[in-house]
Amino acid sequence: MLYFIGQVLPYIAAGVFLIGVTYRVVGWLKVPVPFQLTLFPAPRDGVGRISAVGIELLFFKSLFKNDKILWLWAWSLHIALAMVIGGHVVGIYYLMNQFTLIGMTPAASQTMSAVLGTSAGLVLMVALMVLFYRRISIPEVKRLSDPADYVDLLFLLSIVITGNHMRLPTVHVHLPAIKAYLGGLFTLTPVPIPTDWVFVVHFTLVNLFLIYFPFSKMIHFAGYLVNRAMLVEAAPVYPTPAGTPLRSPFAGTVPKPTAPAGYPAGTKGV
Amino acid sequence: MKVPLHLAKEKEAQAIGFPPVAEAEHQMRLLAEIDDYRKSARSLMVMLETCTKCGACAEACHSYLGTQDFNNIPAARADLFRKIYKRYFTFTGKNLSRFIGAEDFDAETIGKWVTYFYQCNECRRCAVFCPFGIDTAEITIAARHILTRLGVMPRFMAGIAANMAKTGNNMGIPKPAILDSAEFMEDEMREETGLEIKITVDKPGSDILYIPSSADFFSNIDTMIGAAKMFHALEVNWTIPSTVLEAANFGLLFNLDVMKEQNERLREAAASLGAKLVIQGECGHGWRAAKMYTEGATGPAPFELVHVLEYAYQHLPKFKLNKLPWRVTLHDPCNYARAGDIIEQPRAIIKACVTDFVEMTPNRERNYCCGGGSGLLMDEMMEIRMQLGKKKAEQVKELGHLDYLASPCSICKAQLPHVMKHYGMGDLKMGGVMDLLGKALVWD
């Protein structure tokens, strides 16, 4: 079992995650955008478009001007999540000595890493709990929610709680062993998984979450970008500049079909 | 099927090219149409799959705020589509339908779609406030387009499409009546100014093609007069095409094939009269359909396309104006502020024409819809229309005394008098922005 969790599951998870997300995003991108969906007032040039989407992405501007309380928790959640993910990468790779790179002493870097990681983990946990509470306490949101919406939050919460558990002073996790193990996964040179049960549970949950990810609403991270890109597209210019290609087959002179292709004419309904 | 609007009868639907599909075939045909649409427009799949059901859209939507009907929350409205989409087109929906909130097509599906996709004004306000920018109007446009292809559409829309096909305008005005009305307006202007201000129709070799709303020839003649006076003051060579006496394009509001036909019609009119510049009159969705959809629906267009308010704004310094002593506010039509890039132009024009301009709150791209948007002007929907107009009435009421409410869009102009009367402001004068320019222009 430990062998499966340690040496097989991570590759399945990474595979499903990468292929699944790519499959969905490519599925969107191969469909044309037949009309410009520019939402005004819109940025006028490339720099403006990138900064508009960037500011949205960094600060959740639309949500901020709409609902400050939801903004606070949603934004904290995502910022903390970004810190946690980044923290995992550098914290494990440098064994919490990453801040020596900016001139701190190893001891100070260890403390800094622990403080930042612990706070981000706590903010993430609280934000997830608040959003869960919000989902069950606002009648409209509760009615909108599907079982999957609760599961998404609880799933994340279970990962965050097991992660935070490793921060407890009474729990000792041997970071170099984890680094060696993860390094082995990346370099395809198997190293046994550390047998710390909290770590094993945390790690297993993360892997299961990665498998769940492409099938779930977590895909909103990609949908966000694809959607925003449509909203900031340049509006059409008239007369249309020479050499502008047709946006989609709809713009061609295809006569109006009475039924879509593939629809069997005259068949009985199901 | 119980729906709050009159549906087109079989013959009416057939007349505009959408013979109704037998009820037994509804499910199969609906799914085939969804499949077709999702493969031809990226927005549908992305917007259906990205929503996290945070509910932030509820308070942004005047339709929900006015009706307090759960299904009018943008996310819930889109969910009527999403549930079916998930059930038949996604892996999780096929296998874990309860878990992710997918639903089977049933006897109620079509009725629910008609009921709620025709209570969305396609105003795009939810897109401004949604953290992902999900535009429920996109889902509504898709749903209405698909319903029409099943032969299910409001009788009101079918009637307009039939008029359009027959006469080139929504109201079904034949050319002799167009000429009569133009002559009447010329007489009015002669009486008022003593000048020979022309409204020429179908004049070949014109530089400018002006596309008014057909309502400007009957109920909103001050808008047409304002435009005619402006062209006269600028001494330009312009004409109105009798084949497209209509800036509106209801196709955008119920079927994209019908929209495409009218985009074609505009292109043909410009070509046949040799005009290089097409100016669109005061019509909200018509402006969006022309500006944002002409290229996508009919390919590259050889003419320049400008909105009349943009055109007037560009020439504003040339006009001699005598400010009217009025307190005026501006209602931003959704299809200008959010969908058509006409935001500051009407403000500049109004400020040049009246002494006291006040903003309503919120304004510009955050303004609320009048409640008639996307062609919800059916008489049988009057009660719902008044609920949809509730936020607008509150905004106007907050401003206290007003002499004029400017709403430069024919649908707003048709909806707002009912709304204002319903909420106790029946005395308020309303009309377009070109109306004000026409009244403020002074002649040597």
Can you tell me about this structure?
The complex is a heterodimer of chains A (270) and B (444). Helices cover 64% and strands 0% of the residues of chain A. Chain A has helices spanning 2-29, 46-59, 61-66, 68-93, 106-137, 139-144, 147-165, 175-187, 197-212, 220-231. Chain A is globular, with a radius of gyration of 24 Å. The termini of chain B are far apart. Chain B has helices at residues 10-15, 26-38, 42-50, 62-67, 74-89, 91-95, 109-117, 125-129, 136-149, 155-167, 175-193, 221-234, 251-254, 256-273, 284-298, 308-314, 334-337, 344-353, 382-388, 390-397, 410-422, 434-440, and strands spanning 208-211, 238-239, 277-280, 304-307, 324-330, 354-358, 404-406, 430-431. In chain B, strands 2-1-3-4 form a 4-stranded parallel beta sheet. Chain B has 3 domains: 21-150, Orthogonal Bundle (Fumarate Reductase Iron-sulfur Protein, Chain B, domain 2), CATH 1.10.1060; 159-314, 3-Layer(aba) Sandwich (Rossmann fold); 319-440, Rossmann fold. The interface between A and B is large, with 73 and 85 residues.
What characteristics describe this protein?
heterodimer; A: mainly alpha; 10 helices; B: about 450 residues; Fumarate Reductase Iron-sulfur Protein, Chain B, domain 2; Rossmann fold; 4-stranded parallel β-sheet; 8 strands
CA distance, first residue to last residue of chain A = 46 Å
Span from first to last CA of chain B? 63 Å
Going by helix content, strand content and strand pairing, the class of chain A is: mainly alpha
Low-confidence stretches of chain B: none
- Stretches of chain A where pLDDT is under 50 for at least 5 consecutive residues are 264-270
User: What's the mean pLDDT score of chain A?
Assistant: 92
Number of helices of chain B: 22
As a percent range, the share of helical residues of chain A equals 55-70%
CATH topology of the largest domain in chain B: Rossmann fold
Rounded Rg of chain B: 22 Å
Number of domains of chain B: 3
Instruction: State the assembly state of the protein chains.
Output: heterodimer
Number of strand segments of chain A: 0
